[in-house]
Design brief:
This is WD40 repeat-like protein. With 1233 residues, the chain is α+β, with helices and mostly antiparallel strands. 17% of the residues lie in helices and 22% in strands.
């Protein structure tokens, strides 16, 4: 099988020292002949602008937007009695960062469960569908299950198993809660560790395996797992892949699988108990796989693996049964893309957030929309809830608003609470980066928000209504009642609440000045301790006089109240709602007693009146004006462009600052401030009102590029991208096509290796410097192999190839396979990284190791759980076959050691440790061989002694290949061996194995021929790496990351990751994964064949447009004035050609007409015998005599023909150039004549 295409990449590290500030040159400045960028340092460098890195920033930080968050409150650290909380963040830079929160914890007093009095059909009671729920329960047994996209038999199975619980104990992940009484507001979270898990955006992360494993999904098409608490840190490993971006993940806790949704329109289930990449357990395919809007944007699954819900741009929520891998229903109602989904623990309710700015609550039993929440005015991007029945949930929209809806314990939705918690749009450079990508909430008191920026913010939010101390509620007549137990009271009476004790825990919190707002409000200005300005009115579906919102671009209740699957229940729902409305009318008797009229009459202040009319969160005031803590990120790179000299590149970051890079040396040369770039941009417009620029990153790069770029024409040898927020350069086997003159990249003519005509191949130059440690290590190992060894054939471990290899084969033996076991590779890496075998994981020096959780019960079982997907096939459940241990030196091996071919040395043993010696008894290797009798054999065994062996008589030692009775001698006697009688007990013809190359080699100490891989063949021959002439050495920054990636869909996948400083320790790993085109260049100086250099023709004529100057003769006749040369030929060479031709013309004319001489002859006197030695030294240079013009522009000597054609000629016709005598030289020298 052909090896997939692989490429080499390296990441230019961000600068660690002060970067020079540059000034943009004037527009239209001449750069004739200059190949490099025009870099002008700023007159006065802003030293105050460069601040010392604060302590909190001296660690890796996110460079691009944060796409996902995951909260761990169960992992305990060494030396601590309680967990402190760990927050995991996944960003678009491919980084997963763990943060130590330092939040005090305490044991959870009660299990997270549904309130006993409201656990059955609570949402139906609150939304007015209780009668239908009761009727459906009664008719459930009479229903006929249907197939297609309507829940049939699955509905009844869900009904029967809804109340199933795995065990009575609280899961490990939920055993702790925050101790807010001991929490210190304003405390800062600390960096713990990070992993460069992906090479592209991370779109989602989640925690599994009791919060010990992080699963991530990326736009590179892979799903990876990372164990951040492993004793020996290791890189994230791939557990699955899609053929397009992986957008979302969902965990089935009890069945131990993860579902992934992708833009390839499939949902795949992965067994996270297996290590390494494997096939998915189940693949869920849409009805129409070619539909353009079937990409999966959101998925959710219940803890027991019964239901999976998915959302997509087709505006339909699709339901799946993972056990049968079939679609079981669809919920129709949203009018735009569905971006977030939550499912209740009992698989009964579903919450969906959509780009149509609505949040819908669905009943999966009846497949209808129970209610639509419309408090958002923009697209809803994220939802979060830890409530088993979703009665408390958080939502974030595209404008950065975060709301909390709490209806737990309410008899009606209008009794619930909708609070605008915060507005996370503070420092977003562009409006598109302001949306809330993900939320994480701890104990309904601490909220973390992730947006399109690289910053994570923590907000100190008020507690839920259920956590507020006792409230006494009174009706209009002063009678006390509890709304949760009085469902027959009107919504108006249930909404009148008077605090009986202190407002709430939130009202007594100390104000930090940067957390929650001041809470010195009167009773009339707050509701459950929350100011009315921060509340949004929840409309009750039971209120017959609820006004319909006008002036909005949609009516969320129209065509979204019911799903397509429950269309038969529309009439029944309407009749029930009419009954409720009629009962309300009979109770109140008059519209004047409606809830809205009564509350308006009783409003005592403007804030409450405004709250009664407020239906949109955008009209409220955020409860938190400032975050409680900020995890600041960096300004990552978002776009790049390589300049035409192919040596320099420009990048722009999220702040609008443009930087100039030398990609050949891996250095940042300077930066242009965002204000300078904005003033230089012609296409970008600045709003005078708020100072925000509408300029895109592409326009910023073009504005700088057109001012500083030189005039060079060099072939492309690499590509660049900024997917991970850093500048990454990629090289393929076509990287050897670009050449530049040595003086253009900083090498002077007086260098011992270069002159004015020397060229450098950029690809060769870069690759040699990146892998110089690898080349040096290979040459050292080659030298060791070819050097004489000691008598016993052993060398010190310091010069061996691996940690477990101490035997060096003799020089005359064929080169053994170079691929070492992974243990030696890991040991090499561990030695080079101080005990860490990971190149992608970075720890904080203050990180406290975690304590593994104590698992008291392994997979929990319940008789109510239906059998789900078998996670391990039957063949994998068999006990593993124990391998025989390798015998130690001097110890008899009772069984034949099973060693792979590449591990077997010349003596036929593993690693060359076991040598065969004469022995007696049944424990010898030879006796073991004869015990492996599995079948009768009619042919005699070749080469064994015919003398019967008697008990107690030692067998003769088989001769070695060096003795006269070796293999050749035995082969000569083949056929002369007589058959032994059947009665011979020791006859090898009874049950002997078939003589094969394998058995012969075992006895004759001959290793069977093993086909060599191309890499082994290359290493077996002489090594001739490139030298300093082809690729001069320079030091890359030691932290430069080197990658080898393999072509895959949808993106290249990393097969090797290392650093320039430690690449010599990874020689074994590089031999395994290095593409052959790279190995051939590094070790043999051999490059792939390339197309011949393109040549083109041009016309060279004398300049005859100056009447006062004697015209120069033509070099050729008019018909032959066209010349052909390489497109990279410099003007200096053309000038030399003109000079030589004119010399010949002048010499020929002087021999014919001696009296006719031009001023040229005065500069070239006739050489004599005495002047022959000094004539060459006194000969003037061509550039002192003549000059070349094109389009009446004087050409510099170092300009190439390709550059002349592209930047000076600028025509499609034949290139025409002229030569003339140098003007100032003629005036100076020709005067005496």
């Amino acid at each position: 099988m052909a090896q997939p295409r692989r490429r080499v990449s390296f990441v230019v590290p961000p600068p660690t020292t002060h970067v020079t500030r540059l000034r943009l040159p004037a527009h239209g400045m001449q750069r004739l002949g200059a190949t490099g960028p025009l870099l002008v340092p700023y007159e006065t460098q802003d030293t105050p602008h460069v601040e010392e890195t604060p302590p909190w920033a001296r660690h890796p930080r996110h460079r691009l937007g944060i796409s996902s968050l995951a909260l761990d409150i169960s992992t305990q650290l060494a030396g601590q009695n309680t967990p402190g909380g760990i927050l995991y963040s996944g960003g678009r830079d491919g980084l997963i960062i763990a943060w130590d929160l330092g939040v005090p914890m305490k044991k959870r007093r009660t299990k997270l469960s549904v309130t006993p009095s409201r656990k059955n059909d609570h949402w139906e009671y609150m939304t007015g569908w209780a009668d239908d729920a009761i009727e459906e329960e009664g008719e459930e047994d009479d229903r006929v299950g249907t197939d297609g996209d309507v829940l049939g038999d699955v509905t009844s199975s869900l009904k029967r198993s809804r109340q199933a619980s795995v065990s009575g104990e609280t899961p490990i992940e939920q055993q702790w809660e925050a101790d807010m009484a001991s929490f210190r507001p304003g405390s800062h979270s600390e960096f713990r560790q990070c992993a460069q898990a992906h090479s592209d955006w991370i779109n989602d992360i989640l925690l599994c395996n009791h919060n010990q494993t992080v699963i991530s999904a990326s736009s590179d098409g892979t799903i990876k797992s990372w164990n951040p608490h492993a004793p020996v840190p290791s890189d994230p490993s791939v557990i699955g892949s899609h053929t397009d971006y992986v957008r979302c993940l969902s965990l089935c806790r009890e069945q131990n699988w993860v579902a992934s949704g992708s833009f390839d329109r499939t949902i795949k289930l992965w067994d996270i108990s297996r290590s390494g990449q494997s096939d998915p357990l189940v693949t869920l395919n849409p009805a129409d796989a070619s539909a353009p809007k079937s990409s999966v944007y959101a998925i959710a699954s219940d803890p027991f693996g019964r239901t999976i819900a998915s959302g997509s741009p087709e505006r339909v929520v699709r339901m799946w049964d993972p056990r049968s891998a079939k679609r079981t229903g669809k919920l129709v109602g949203h009018t735009d893309n569905i971006r977030a989904i939550l499912i209740s623990d009992d698989s009964k309710y579903l919450l969906t957030g959509s780009a149509d700015a609505s949040i819908k609550l669905w009943s999966l039993t009846s497949q209808r929309c129970l209610h639509t929440f419309t408090h958002h005015a923009e697209s809803v991007w994220s939802l979060y809830s830890t409530h088993p029945n979703l009665e408390t949930f958080y939502s974030g929209d595209r404008c950065g608003l975060v709301c909390r809806v709490d209806v737990e314990g309410c008899g009606d939705l209008s009794d619930g609470e909708c609070v605008l918690l915060c507005n996370d749009t503070g420092d977003a450079p562009r409006p598109a980066m302001e949306g809330i990508n993900r939320l994480a909430v701890l104990n309904d008191s601490l909220l973390w928000t992730a947006t399109g920026t690289s910053t994570i913010k923590r907000w100190h939010i008020p507690p839920k209504r259920a956590h507020v101390p006792s409230y006494s509620q009174y009706d209009a007549d002063g009678e006390r009642f509890s709304p949760a137990h009085s469902p027959n009271l009107s919504p108006a009476k249930r909404r009148i609440a008077i605090p009986h004790e202190l407002a709430s825990e939130a009202s007594t919190r100390p104000s930090t000045g940067h957390g929650s707002r001041e809470r010195g409000h009167s009773i009339d200005a707050t509701y459950h301790g929350v100011p009315f300005d921060s509340l949004v009115k929840l409309l009750s579906p039971n209120d017959p006089f609820t006004p319909i919102t006008q002036g909005r671009n949609r009516d969320p209740e129209v065509a979204t109240l019911y799903s397509a699957a429950s269309i038969m229940s529309v009439q029944r729902g309407n009749s029930s709602r009419m009954q409720i409305q009629s009962s309300f009318q009979n109770t109140h008797g008059s519209p004047l007693q409606s809830s809205r009229t009564e509350d308006t009459m009783m409003a005592t202040n403007v804030a409450r009146a405004n709250y009664e009319e407020r239906e949109l969160a955008s009209e409220a005031t955020p409860y938190c004006s400032e975050p409680d803590d900020v995890l600041v990120g960096e300004d990552g790179l978002v776009r790049s462009v390589i300049l035409n000299d192919r040596v320099h590149a420009l990048t722009v970051d999220t702040s609008g600052e443009v930087a100039v890079w030398d990609i050949v040396r891996g250095l940042c040369l300077g930066r242009y401030l965002a204000d300078d770039v904005a003033s230089a941009s012609h296409s970008g417009s600045v709003d005078a009102g708020n100072g925000e620029s509408e300029r895109s990153p592409r326009e910023a790069l073009e504005a700088v590029r057109e001012r500083i770029e030189g005039e060079a024409v060099v072939s492309t040898w690499c590509t660049a991208d900024t997917k991970a927020g850093v500048l990454a350069i990629h090289l393929t086997d076509r990287c050897f096509d670009a050449e530049v003159y040595a003086d253009e990249v900083g090498f002077s003519h007086d260098d011992k290796y270069f002159n004015d005509e020397s060229k450098l191949n950029i690809g060769k130059w870069v690759l040699r410097n990146l892998f110089f440690g690898f080349i040096r290590e290979e040459l050292h190992l080659k030298k060791v192999q070819e050097s004489p060894v000691s008598k016993d054939g052993f060398l010190p471990p310091s010069v061996t190839r691996g940690a477990d290899r101490t035997h060096v084969p003799p020089p005359e033996s064929p080169r053994k396979p170079r691929h070492r076991p992974s243990s030696s590779v890991d040991s090499n890496r561990r030695r080079s990284r101080n005990g860490s075998s990971s190149t992608a994981v970075i720890h904080s020096p203050k990180m406290i190791p975690a304590i593994p959780p104590v698992i008291t019960s392994f997979p929990r079982s319940s008789p109510l759980l239906t059998p789900l997907i078998p996670l391990i096939p039957a063949k994998e459940m068999l006990p593993p076959i124990l391998q025989s241990p390798v015998a130690s030196p001097g110890e008899a091996n009772p069984q034949t050691p099973s060693a792979s071919n590449h591990q077997r040395s010349r003596s036929g043993t593993v690693d060359g440790y076991v040598t065969r010696t004469p022995s007696t008894g049944a424990g010898t290797v030879k006796d073991d061989y004869f015990t492996l009798r599995t079948r009768q054999q009619s042919l005699p065994v070749i080469g064994f002694d015919e003398t019967p062996a008697t008990p107690g008589t030692p067998r003769a030692e088989p001769p070695t290949p060096s003795t006269p009775g070796g293999l050749m001698g035995r082969l000569k006697n083949f056929g002369k061996i007589a058959k032994r009688p059947v009665s011979d007990a020791a006859s090898p013809t009874l049950g002997a194995l078939t003589p094969t190359a394998e058995t012969l080699a075992a006895f004759e100490d001959i290793t069977p021929e093993v086909p060599k891989t191309p890499m082994q063949q290359l290493l077996a021959g002489p090594l001739t790496p490139p030298g300093n002439v082809d690729a001069p050495l320079h030091a890359f920054p030691p932290q430069t990351v080197v990658l080898i990636t393999e072509e895959a869909a949808p993106a290249y996948r990393v097969v090797y990751r290392g650093h320039v400083a430690s690449i010599h320790h990874d020689t074994a790993a590089l031999e395994e994964v290095m593409p052959m085109w790279l190995a051939e260049y590094l070790l043999l100086s051999k490059v792939p064949p390339s197309a011949p250099l393109a040549k083109f023709s041009f016309i060279l004529l004398p300049w005859n447009k100056d009447p006062d100057v004697e015209p120069l003769p033509e070099l050729l006749n008019t018909a032959q004035s066209k010349l052909t040369a390489s497109r990279y030929l410099r003007v200096a060479k053309i000038l030399q050609h003109v000079y030589d031709k004119l010399e010949k013309v002048a010499a020929s004319e002087s021999s014919k007409v001696p009296s006719v001489r031009s001023s040229l002859d005065a500069n070239h006197p006739q050489s004599t015998s005495t002047e022959s030695s000094s004539g060459l030294a006194s000969r003037p240079r061509p550039e002192d005599q003549y000059e070349i013009l094109c389009s009446e522009a004087l050409l510099p000597l170092d300009m190439t023909l390709a550059a002349v054609r592209q930047y000076v000629w600028r025509q499609s016709g034949e290139l025409v150039m002229h030569y003339r005598r140098k003007v100032h030289h003629r005036d100076k020298v020709g005067a005496p004549f």
